[in-house]
Amino acid sequence: MPPRLTARQMFIAGATLTAIGTALALVTDGWLALIFESADFPHAVAGTIATLLREIAMTLGLVLVGGSVVTRSLGETKATE
């Protein structure tokens, strides 16, 4: 079964998700510190959700960028044979 994404599409999607994860990290760190100082339970849950979303976006983005590099190098190896 052929892959659904090309190496270029994987790289673009990975770079976008990594940028989103980075932006979330920059934006949410400040207000997470304020939320956890108050230590209200609903705020702590919201902070945990925001932290999970940014970690998932960053990790998936980096995996896609790495996968695109591997896919491109395997494609070039096949083309030279």
Oligomer: single chain
Characterize the overall form: rod-shaped
The SS-based structural class is: mainly alpha
In whole angstroms, the N-to-C terminal distance is: 21 Å
Explain the overall architecture.
- With 81 residues, the protein is mainly α.
- It has 2 helices and no strands.
- It has helices at 7-38, 41-80.
- The relative contact order is 0.19.
Question: TL;DR of this structure?
Answer:
With 81 residues, the protein is mainly alpha-helical. Helix content is 89%, strand content 0%.
Q: Could you list some keywords that capture this structure?
A:
81 residues; 2 helices; rod-shaped
Secondary-structure blueprint:
Elements: H1 7-38, H2 41-80
Helix pairs in contact: 1-2
